[in-house]
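Think of the structure tokens as a kind of shorthand, similar to the way a musician reads notation: each symbol stands for something richer, in this case the local conformation of the backbone. In the example below we present two proteins back to back. Begin with the first one, reading the sequence and then the tokens, and try to describe in your own words what changes along the chain.
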Amino acid sequence: MTIFEVVEELKEKYGTTDPFVLCEYLGVKVSVSPLGSLKGLYTYIDNEPVIIISSTIKRIPQLLVCGHELGHHVLHANIAMQGTLREFTFFNMRDKTEAEANRFLANLNIDDDELDALFREGRSVAEAAQILCFPEELLNIKIADMVRRGYEYENYSGNIRLF
């Protein structure tokens, strides 16, 4: 099953894209606490999955961090149980588990049809990012995933930046 399919199954089953609500349904405790320089982390405490989000970041970034860390729970719980997941770095695509969690986040938060419609209107990645209120890096991850699934964007083929 692809990451896109996993996300679509979760959205259909629970009727939401809110990562905090999904955590409740999936039995993942979420704590907002001081974390120093870290934005968030996913771990197991007393055999229970826990996402800890930095209390120093605002609500929208907290949603992104929670969605990314939820991706680790859904895709990498077995790794986290061993205590080997590294800290969360926004949009790190060089590490396989981080890249997968970023793809999970992009597919959870950005609707294919909505983004496709913006591109069909001739919008740039920067314009679409402003309209959708997401970072360009997240849109670039989503676009790359959509292209892998068969979407074609002539104007964007050379402008998709993943790093």
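Once you have a description of the first chain, move to the second and do the same.
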Amino acid sequence: MTSRHSGRVLLAALGLALTLLGGCAGLPSVGPDYQTPETPMPAAWQAGRAAAGERQDLSRWWRQLDDPTLTRLIDESLSGSLDLKKAQARLTQARASRNQAAGGYFPTVAASAGASSNRQAEVINPNYVGTTYSAGFDASWEIDLFGGTRRSVEAATADQAASAASLNNARVSLVAEVALNYVELRGYQRRLSIAAENLASQGETLQIVQWRNQAGLASSVDVEQARANVEQTRAMIPDLEVGAYQAENRLAVLLGRHPGTLHDALSTYKPLPEVPASIASGIPADILLQRPDLIAAERTLAAETARVGQKMAARYPSLSLSGSFGWEAFSFGALSGAGAVASATAASLAATVFDGGRLRSAVDIQSAVQEQALIAYESGILTALEEVENALKAHAVARDRLNARQAAADAARNAAQLGEMQYESGLTDFQKVLDTQRTRLTAEDNLSTAQSAVLTSLIKLYKALGGGWEQPVAAEDNAQGKPS
């Protein structure tokens, strides 16, 4: 009988708790209910030749460049970057904070067991020594009447989604940085190759002038001018080597490696990746879904809005329930008897009557924080629009510049070749040869820089559009955090 009676009491208590929990879930919560702000967006991009059409999948945009080395570097960075690991730790913290907040829905139950021994005063009963044994459970629960806990969980859930979006934003930045430094490295290597080719050509010219000087067909001035041309070109090489070295080390750090560990894999020159013919940028409204930094800002706004309700709930009365159920006896064996059962229940209703305006001020402070989050979100949208417009324009201009510099480099190479042939035939002076050689070096170096600039502008465009992460965010990071 004792066992069945105890079981019925526990089941009744559990049923009451579940009933109250379900009832609290249906109660209204004080404070503003969050709604995503209506943000007017332009219908189309304004930059020159902005590509229209359907929004394309930008989650792995770098594969469109068809460069296996770049793909391998990015894949390794996504698993080894310390910045990503730090962002992942923040997400783990946010998830734990949400679970902690959700714990407020449920009672706190503690179990205890003990034994105490006492001796009465000798003047009362010198021979009495008593031992008391006890075991039982204590429970306390604050009923979420006005939604303080619900708003707290709502805020924590939004924080969790914001942390997930921040992790994705870190991925976007990391992928872009790896690609930019890779293009910079290949650009420096290409410029080194151009300098070496021109140095060899100028060295041959110097040798020819020296032979002609020995034959009395050229002056010593021509020889020294040719030598000066060679040394000026040679002086360009150290700066290019330093630039390549720095880009290589930066790539290693982005991958979570020590500087210098990528030298063997990247020291051999390879051409720059091919640029896609076009990119479908979609419409401006797409960036609200594509850019994880805007998603993070919007979720942060949702969290701060929920916290307004949390602060408001603190101004209302609170209802707390507490109880204990256990056994007490003077012998351990007697704890199982019906007479050993002891229980107690209590309920309390508390409200703040006067606090000098502290709770009201807390609501005002949080409302100001919410307003700041709204402004930050709206400002983030404007910044995103600006970045995409600038990136679209920069990419279009870079393509035009590349076409012009390609034509200039072709003409400079032809001029240099003709100048050398005419000089050897005695049809022009040596100054013409020097001028055409310098022009060729400058034109080819500018062409290499223009090729890198097209890729750089394309990478920045992909970054501005929010490319580099996969949608959608996990469902657990989008949950509203309300009790079922």
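Compare your description with these statements about the second chain. The longest strand covers residues 129-143.
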